[in-house]
Amino acid sequence: MVYKNIICPVCGGSCDDVQVDLDTENRTIDVQNACKMGNAKFQEVVSSHRILKPTIRENGKVKDVSWEEALEMAADILVNARRPLFFLGSETSCEAQEVGLHIAEYLGAPADSNATICHGPTVMGIQESGMVGATAGQAKNRADMTVYWGVNALESMPRHMSKYGVFPRGYWTKRGRFDRTMVTVDPRVTPTAVASDLHLQLNPSSDYELLSAMFTILNGKEPHPSVEEITGIPISVMKQTVEMMKEANFVAMYVGLGVSSSYGKHRNIEIALNFVKEMNNYTKCNIGALRGHCNVAGFNQLASYLYGYPFGLDFMKGYPRYNPGETTTVDLLREKDVDAAFIMSADLVNHIPADAAKYLADIPMICLDIAPCPSTTAADVVLPGVIDAMECDGTFYRLDNVPVYFEPFTDSPFPETKSNEDTLKQLFAKVKAKKEA
Ligand code: SF4
């Protein structure tokens, strides 16, 4: 059967035009409109390596158990730990993340999500200086200049250029690519850089200096000549770029981990945001982050409106605290400041430094996921995950922080649970019952 307008749950693009032809008898799925990354995830619905049974590790051996046994053991681990870590990954809905945050609050535990290892510095930069933002639709319809800074959009969010950023025909950009100037700022010659009209190939980790020099030029001053050697970009090219931006009608600037995770971190983002604010004295200019996972923005929004902080929360004192470098996942693991972990919809072991991953593998760990990965291999309890936007409904926040409600085209394969939110509610009930007993 064919289903239309399905939302892709892979990257922050949250493409909402995917067409799926699901053959339940032959267990095949044909996907139209999604990119390769999206297609691969849709294939998980029928894949043979999907996690379909809960498992626990007993005396070093992994064995299949009933849903009830796995939940019991997971609840025991969480209740008996002095300080369990909740890593509420972004490949699931805000509704599931919300229940996870409530369990962490109930147990007085730290709770974190993917931003801690990706766009955390972006969020911190926004807290410092505020952000001039725009929806993806505004950029599509208005932007006649697109700047990708420290991001290889063609490979990290493959449909961004065709759906929002460069190629689509908008209301004021009727000729699509021909009505847009595209600039890439990246130390590497990426496919995005090759497709650009202008590539500023700056020296690695000199984003702050380049932004600072362009900010100086924007204010009508001459940057210090040493900036040419530091950044590798001639001042004349910096001036040309600033002039192009001033002359555009609407500039859409996108930053990636190349800015937020190079030297300077959130200070890079802060100066980029201030540069964009200043640019609005001359033309309309906005900035946004290209987020690699579908609901990174969702956790930031949810945690901020529920508890006041976007990631790296700690409920140990009975109220939420936030101190990146202390209450964030890698720091908690490096300091051996947690003694158990609950990981949902994220392969955390694969994404953190080796010493932190080793400690994580040494402590009791519960994983909720859809497919085997290093984290599920190291886990003591594995709970099968339900695939959001395919098998259950819920909400994601898109890259531009717009909430997107998604509906499923098939059912959860598990009679015991309808969604990850449902699984977490069951776990919360068990944790409460054990704690209160
Ligand atoms: S660009 Fe992102 S959201 Fe769109 S189809 Fe590809 S992986 Fe899915």
TrEMBL record:
| Enzyme Commission no | 1.2.99.5
> Which biological process annotations from GO are given for this protein?
methanogenesis; respiratory electron transport chain
A single GO cellular-component term from the record reads:
membrane
Which InterPro entries does the record cross-reference, listed alphabetically? Formylmethanofuran_DH_bsu, Mopterin_OxRdtase, Prok_molybdopt-oxidoreductase
Top-level taxon of origin:
Archaea
- What residue ranges are annotated as transmembrane? none
The UniProt entry's coiled-coil ranges are none
Q: What top-level class of enzyme does the UniProt entry assign?
A: oxidoreductase
Keywords for the protein's UniProt record, in alphabetical order: Oxidoreductase
One GO MF term attached to the UniProt entry: NADH dehydrogenase activity
Q: What SUPFAM superfamilies does its record include?
A: Formate dehydrogenase/DMSO reductase, domains 1-3 (SSF53706)
Q: Which Gene3D superfamilies match?
A: 3.30.200.210, 3.40.50.740, Dimethylsulfoxide Reductase, domain 2
Q: What is this protein called?
A: Formylmethanofuran dehydrogenase, subunit B
> Lineage, please?
Archaea, Methanobacteriati, Methanobacteriota, Stenosarchaea group, Methanomicrobia
